[in-house]
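Please, structure for the following, as tokens.
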Amino acid sequence: MTQNISRRSLAKGAAWAAPVVVASSAVPAYAASPNCPSDIDSQVDAVFQVRLAALPDLSGTSIRLWFTNRSGINGGLHTSNLRAQVTNGGAIDAAGLPFGFEFAQRNVATSAAINKLFSGGTIRTARMPVEWPANAKWNTRTGVANSTPRAINVDDPFAANQRDVSHASSFAKSYSADGLYNDLASGEFGEETGVPRGNHLTWILAMRPDTAVTKGSVVDFVNSNWRDGGTGAGGGGAIYTSLGVRPIGYLPPSFEEVRAAVGSSIDETCLVEAYTKRAEAWRSSSERFAGATVEFSGWGFDSTGDVKTVAYFSDDFVYSHEIGAFQGALTGTSFASGDTNAIDFFNKQLVGLTAGQNTQLGYQLMYADGIW
């Protein structure tokens, strides 16, 4: 499958600069404006009701997402993917109605997928680590870090040693992640455009209508290009990063659309407050999915390591290190070797095992684990 990475992304991946610290934030909480009309909430809601009435019926439609990795050694221009497939043709296409997701990255110190699968146990002679250290290499024979593990800035998305990454997509449009959902008219995004929320950076993406992603094809919905973790600022080893997705469904009308509908005479602070409140209600309503089922495929859902596809009922992120990633598999139903069980897959990687992290097992665990 062709990798949909632009020339700009390739250049950025090859010349990794230090991450840029930006002063982005979520929409602030505004004090009630004295200039608010008494019916401002109903004016804003009327625009949202028009959007709801326009949504198609997606009953029977399934939108499936999974993580994969195509890289070998932990090196520059290393590519991982978020893949997507819509099961019933172009039913999701609707003019002016973007179907979107919140996409995120964050540093991690441990892997839910590996911990569930191995629980610190042994495969042949290699004892698996109970906790994956965030800034120290571990020995694949003993499961013990070569030096004292230090979880450095794992909760700080703008840390100096955050893994550099450039994200790009030919199948997604980018919208502002500041809570206003304005169209950014871009398919490329990186740390400098991310909005920090808690311990992760976040962006909002929507499927481009009338493209392969809405017509049943398996596509690389997002390509992520990573810098070598061993040479990051701060040194001392790799900083492990995970990717996450939080399905939104059909995006609400943007703040700009609401502003155009209610008129320019209403105080900005008043309108932002009313819009933010209504947009949050949209995010908590199942109506935004228009009857579609969003599913995630992975092998880390339980301790069996079997590949499963699980329907999404949450309002939280699903992270790559929580559900595991497939090693180059196109369909999200098996690993590159054809295995549908993670234990079988990892066992095959033990051939020629030597001490230290720099072994085939170490690479396979790191990347198929969904940690980059």
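The longest strand covers residues 241-250. Confidence is low (pLDDT under 50) at residues 1-33, 231-236.
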